[in-house]
Design a protein that fits this description.
Length: 387
């Protein structure tokens, strides 16, 4: 397949990957079906636990079986999640839906990055990874923006409408990836067993200080920023915004995230500085959110999502350039694995339910600060190849 044809299909799949209308009001939908914030926190934590269990095995499977087939199955599992939720009225059924969502996310996590990098390498265009990956992420967030805009309005009619459309849209991902070519995965002649393969990938991290630094960033900053997004509709509701306004606000935020993903590759020569500044700005916003309750704070808290998308492109670029070809999906999955180790959602939901929602943001600010306390111990030994 020609590079131009592939990139067009890649961009199409990224646009529909998160074309999920229910995102705009997902947690409010849970509340409407009888769940409280503590139960929602438990659900999200359970999602993280399932991700912890499945993330690395699916990454290894992608490196040893077929990345293309993994991506095809990913869209099918995502769709099943939303179909289950249409009929969910209990904690257990929502948990079942999250299980299928976990399969969908872990089947594509790391796998898509590795597939893209190997395809570009096959065409001697691997230097274009950050650019194409960033544009793909930009289209993904743009698709999310359109979806949440529609979801905010349609949810005022019925929550089932955005759920049905969400279930249908992710099938486009499976269709487009079905058209992609199979790319042979380059593996060593002395293939390792599963645990040996995982151990080898883990050793790669501990013997590469740049990768170790990325893992630290994922455990703390990515973990906090990404889990924070799960409660954005609850926060906007706390500020007094109706559902239709949430859709508009989220759409604007997604457009900003799309721009951030597009522009991120321009900073790839200053990746570490950009990542640290991003973390610092996020901490300041969290502190302000903990003390100020004003409708305009919606702009601040949603800007963290912009910072998240910007930093993801840069960190993914570092990972793909630092790891051996046969470990790319596994290492990317390991990175995603560690970002789910800390039970952020569980603590956030518990504090919000038992005490106050704003205290949860103070907790996140304090947690993110630990990144800068630990960083000097790694930074002083970091390799300079991507600094």
């Amino acid at each position: 397949m020609k590079l131009l044809t592939f990139t067009r299909l890649f961009y199409l799949s990224r646009f529909f990957f998160d074309f999920i209308l229910i995102y705009a009001v997902e947690k409010l939908f849970f509340v409407s079906r009888g769940l409280n914030l503590s139960q929602i926190g438990i659900l999200l934590f359970s999602w993280s636990v399932m991700t912890l269990v499945l993330e690395v095995p699916t990454g290894v499977l992608a490196d040893r079986w077929s990345r293309r087939k993994m991506l095809i199955l990913s869209g099918i599992f995502f769709s099943t999640c939303y179909l289950v939720w249409i009929f969910s009225n209990s904690f257990v059924l929502f948990l079942v839906g999250f299980f299928f969502r976990t399969l969908g996310s872990t089947f594509t996590s790391g796998t898509l990055q590795a597939y893209l990098y190997d395809f570009l390498k096959l065409h001697n265009q691997e230097d274009q990874f950050e650019k194409i990956w960033g544009r793909g992420n930009a289209l993904r967030t743009l698709g999310t923006g359109v979806a949440v805009f529609l979801g905010g309005f349609l949810s005022q009619i019925s929550y089932s409408i955005p759920l049905v459309i969400s279930a249908l849209s992710v099938f486009v991902v499976s269709i487009t990836t079905f058209l992609w070519p199979e790319i042979p995965i380059i593996t060593p002649t002395n293939e390792e067993k599963y645990w040996g393969f995982v151990k080898s990938a883990t050793n790669t991290v501990f013997h590469n200080r740049n990768l170790l630094r990325i893992v630290l960033y994922s455990v703390i900053i990515f973990s906090a920023f990404s889990n924070l997004e799960e409660f954005n509709d609850i926060y906007l509701n706390f500020l007094g915004y109706p559902n239709y306004m949430m859709g508009i606000i989220f759409a604007i935020a997604m457009s900003a995230q799309s721009l951030a993903s597009t522009m991120a590759h321009k900073f790839k020569n200053y990746s570490w500085v950009a990542l640290d500044v991003t973390a610092l700005i996020g901490i300041i916003i969290l502190l302000l959110t903990a003390w100020i309750r004003h409708p305009l704070m919606a702009m601040g808290i949603l800007f963290i999502g912009v910072l998240l998308e910007f930093s993801r492109v840069l960190s993914d670029g570092i990972i793909q350039k630092e790891v051996p070809p046969h470990q790319r999906a596994t290492l990317a999955s390991l990175n995603s694995f560690v970002s789910n180790i800390v039970p952020i959602q569980l603590v956030f939901g518990f504090i919000a339910y038992r005490y106050h929602l704003q205290l949860s943001y103070l907790f996140l600010a304090i947690y993110c600060t630990t990144y800068f306390l630990i960083l000097p111990f790694i930074k002083k030994e970091a390799l300079g190849s991507t600094s």
